[in-house]
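Posting this for the archive.
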Amino acid sequence: MENYFKDIENKLAEKINCEKIEIINNSHKHEGHKFFSAEKYHLHLKIKSLYLKSISRLSAQKLIMNILKEDLKTKIHALEISIE
């Protein structure tokens, strides 16, 4: 799991100038939900980035989602994004 989260950080850092990236695994909070799968993560992504703050929130989120689009198909069920 730690290696996977590091991979996510690396993917984002390659495409976006970020001062800090924090990934919080909230999967345990969703175990009782109807479509819960232990193979997919519920993540909270906290990014500190002057670049992302300089563009619209929608554009920033679209950029992040585009970078992680393959992960969203295979390994990430839910993604909460906070930009500082």
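The helical segments are 2-15, 50-54, 57-67, 69-74. Residues 2-83 form a domain with the GMP Synthetase; Chain A, domain 3 fold (CATH 3.30.300.90).
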